[in-house]
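The protein record minuted underneath.
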Amino acid sequence: MRRKDFLNGALAGLVVLAGCAHPTPPASPLATPSDTGAFKTVKVNERVYALVGELGQRSPSNLGNNMTAGFIIGDDGVVVIDTSGSRAGAEVMVKAIRAVTDKSIRWAVNTGGQDHRWLGNDYFRSVQGAKILAAEEGLKDQQARGFQQMDMARRNIGESGFAGTKEAYADTTFKGRQRLDVKGVQVELIYTGGAHTNGDLWVWLPQERIVFAGDSVFAERLLGIQPGLGFKWIAALERMRDELQPVTVIPGHGNVTTLDKALKDSLGYLQMLRDGSRKLIADGAFDPVEVADKLDQSAFAYLANYEDKRFRGQNAMRMAEEVFAAQK
């Protein structure tokens, strides 16, 4: 099958978290998406909230907020996790935050370099007075792909919804690991080493064992592999599992969940692609296109967007390319 057949060719409803096997109480929904424009507000504990967006693609109705973001309430202010895919989307985020707390928004963290993680930076900085933080690699990604992402977001959201959105990069970056000086709650930023994008980071609350995983975790939705990042993504998730051992995972897409569910939908899928590619190559598959044609991904048909063959084919080819390269 030709490569273009994969590249030239959703949406599951939001699922309320049923609970977890750990002693912490389950997250509870506080507001439906219609109450805050594009998000369902989910209370994880008294300080931590997730803003759960749609599982589908960016659109005029969601203002680019097809992701899960969130916020942490410290004694001295609020930490926002991701800033939306547009200025209007950032305003929706603040509306959701203000429904919970009137404390000042002092920090905003970009968990990666993709548009809905940072295109609301200008609004949070200029209007809310927040300091914007990202991993060093995340800033590089913002700068390298800023024009491309602005153009894509504008086309997906529409001129009206995208009006007023400006490129605004992170103020402060870090390598490795950095602790935020937030009173009343321990907050650490941890660079993943690369996952969905090169600049992905985790926001880790070690006392509560809660992680905002950003785009390193897709729950309930089919993930998308960028060139050369499949193996890194697997390594990042194995590190999260082994080093952090979180009780609660707030993914970059999907509902608040457990570690087991997060790993099943993301690490499990990536490992299936890697191991399936290795087997097909050992059995004589000639190139990544043949691997993508033959690889059976049906065990993950329950994920939103699985029905789009472009996603599945691209993921299989990109993982197969890495497997082929590793064998040379």
Confidence is low (pLDDT under 50) at residues 1-26, 28-36. The two ends are 24 Å apart (CA to CA).
